[in-house]
Amino acid sequence: MIPETDTINEALRLDGNAVAGELQMLLGFDVTVLQAICGHCHKEGVFANLVAYVRGPGMVLRCPTCEGLILQIVKTPQTVIINLEGITPGIKSTVIQR
Ligand SMILES: [Zn+2]
User: Fold this and answer.
1) What does the pLDDT look like over 12-39, one tens digit per residue?
2) How far apart are CA 66 and CA 64, in angstroms?
3) Which end of the chain has fewer CB within 10 Å, C or N?
4) What pTM value is reported for the model?
5) How many domains are contained in the chain?
């Protein structure tokens, strides 16, 4: 039997294309052309294949192979906090003033 939380997570799961438009507005370029390398399992793949969760207080992109956190964005009325630690070890977060 599939645990209920797995069923809920599967229903909320999107691909990287679902957040591409919003990321392009924040970063100023088309992120779907990027190759992403997972900082956890080192698997390389196109951005569009990342797993996106967008129904929380922010947006989360996870590796389709190991489920490791790749990118997290949280927006407040004054700032946008972008956590990139899953892509680039050593960079913890970036804050964009709105
Ligand atoms: Zn991974």
Assistant:
1) 788 888 888 888 888 888 887 778 788 8
2) 6
3) N
4) 0.75
5) 1
